[in-house]
Write a structure and sequence with these properties.
With 198 residues, this protein is α+β, with helices and mostly antiparallel strands. The chain contains 4 helices and 5 strands; from the N terminus they run H-H-E-E-H-E-E-H-E. Strands 1-3-4-2-5 form a 5-stranded mixed β-sheet. The relative contact order is 0.09.
Length: 198
């Protein structure tokens, strides 16, 4: 072998040597792959056999290459003894379970539908309302429908001396109900104020 200036050996490989090294590596990889496949296949069979033994089901061993199953049965299998079957009952002797009635659902109380007055009229005396707007009759009717869909009780009242209507929500009783309704209207984007009719 030729030596370099530092006294090391130099290895020169030709095409034949490189190809032979490549084929040796391919053959070794093929051997390792085949061994892994065989080991994995045997482990799957072993796991299936253990599962069959653990569940108390009969173990069926398949033979490869048409070998007789007697050869497989030469190896004693340690299987758990089967428990005694329960005494057979005829369909007539078996008691039928009583059907359970379905649970009755409690009806949910329905909220009172919002009151929408049909025309324009003066509200009753002694009532308190929240005024949402004062507008023309067509716009008031549209606003009344919008508020009614949101669950408010709406009434249209005339504005004295003008061709306008007041859009009122109510009637409301007590400061808590007024505050609660005012908060709901503000959340809906309105700026209501209190109006009492005497």
């Amino acid at each position: 072998m030729p030596r370099t200036d530092q006294g090391e050996f130099e290895l020169v490989l030709g095409n034949k040597q490189l190809l032979s090294v490549f084929f040796i590596v391919v053959v070794l990889l093929g051997v390792f792959f085949t061994m892994g496949y065989i080991v994995g296949r045997n482990m799957a069979k072993t796991a299936a056999e253990q599962a069959a033994l653990g569940s108390g089901q009969p173990l069926v061993i398949e033979s490869e290459g048409g070998a007789a199953p007697a050869a497989a049965s030469a190896k004693p299998a340690t299987a758990r003894p089967k428990p005694a079957p329960p005494p057979a009952q005829t369909a007539a002797a078996r008691p039928k379970p009583a059907p359970t009635p379905p649970p009755k659902a409690k009806p949910k109380p329905k909220p009172a539908p919002p009151v929408v007055s049909g025309g324009v009229s003066e509200p009753p005396a002694g009532t308190t309302w929240l005024q949402v707007a004062a507008t023309t009759l067509p716009e008031g009717e549209v606003l009344r429908d919008v508020l009614a869909k949101r669950g408010f009780s709406v009434h249209l009242a005339p504005v004295p001396g003008q061709d306008l209507v007041r859009v009122l929500v109510g009637p409301l009783n007590g400061s808590e109900e007024i505050a609660r309704t005012r908060a709901r209207l503000r959340d809906a984007g309105f700026k209501p104020f209190t109006r009492r009719y005497k």
